[in-house]
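Q: Given only this backbone (271 positions), what sequence would you predict?
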């Protein structure tokens, strides 16, 4: 009984350490004071000020666009890589291919950002024009995110029963139709999780975007970092609160959809 209480206390302290700062940040977003750490009353003034902050809204739009296209591209490429690693187990260069796909997972962001910057500079020297705007950020984020997608999707593919695909092919379905009618619905929850992870990684990145980004396309984390260096601004609390609410709603919708998909698959499988 005493051990159970201690475990509960340790768990409560751990959760408080993780989530209490976020709760305080959200609470202070409704603060009326110009000082981000001094409470002077309840107000929505900083949400209104945020809506009139053009550079911050422009940076948020750039981050959302980059994260969306990064998640889509990384999902397609990462799924293809996972299929190759799990279905084609014997081919020349498999070890090298797996290392290239998963290498960005263990490399520091500084190294990835610097290497991508040098790559874009070399491309500009050869072709006379380097990628500009949000394109280099998208390419760099996709390079990192596809490794995470490949690992998640491959782990799901390894748990699938090969008899399901074999039965579909025995009934006359080709490889493409078998993938879209059998394999794809079974790995849909893993695909949703991989998409959300890639989206979050891109939306949260600061280091890589600061290397490859430019004045034409500044992401939201880079803009926030630049703003915080000049001092804490209550608008940052309001922005963080909106992001937390939006991401929480998106995650809740994805979790509900994945739960519904798993229940449908379980019901179709029968007892």
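A: Predicted residues:
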């Amino acid at each position: 009984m005493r051990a159970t209480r201690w475990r509960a206390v340790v768990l409560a302290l751990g959760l408080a350490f993780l989530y209490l700062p976020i709760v305080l940040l959200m609470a202070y977003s409704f603060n009326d004071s110009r000082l981000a750490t001094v409470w002077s009353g309840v107000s929505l003034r900083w949400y209104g000020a945020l809506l009139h902050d053009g550079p911050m809204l422009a940076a948020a739009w750039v981050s959302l666009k980059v994260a969306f296209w990064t998640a889509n591209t990384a999902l397609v490429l990462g799924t293809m890589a996972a299929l190759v690693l799990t279905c084609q187990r014997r081919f020349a260069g498999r070890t090298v291919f797996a290392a290239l796909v998963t290498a960005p997972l263990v490399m520091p962001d500084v190294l990835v950002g610097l290497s991508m910057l040098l790559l874009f500079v070399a491309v500009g020297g050869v072709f006379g024009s380097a990628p500009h705007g949000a394109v280099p950020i998208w390419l760099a984020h996709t390079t990192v995110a596809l490794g995470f997608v490949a690992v998640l999707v491959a782990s799901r593919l390894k748990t699938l029963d090969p008899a399901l695909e074999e039965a579909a092919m025995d009934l006359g379905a080709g490889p493409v139709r078998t993938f879209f009618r059998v394999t794809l619905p079974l790995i849909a929850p893993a695909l949703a999780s991989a998409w959300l992870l890639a989206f979050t990684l891109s939306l949260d990145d600061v280091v890589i975007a600061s290397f490859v980004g430019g004045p034409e396309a500044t992401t939201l984390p880079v803009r926030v970092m630049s703003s915080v260096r000049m001092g804490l601004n209550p608008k940052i609390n309001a922005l963080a609160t909106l992001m937390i609410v939006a991401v929480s709603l998106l995650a809740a919708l994805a979790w509900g959809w994945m739960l519904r998909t798993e229940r449908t698959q379980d019901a179709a499988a029968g007892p």
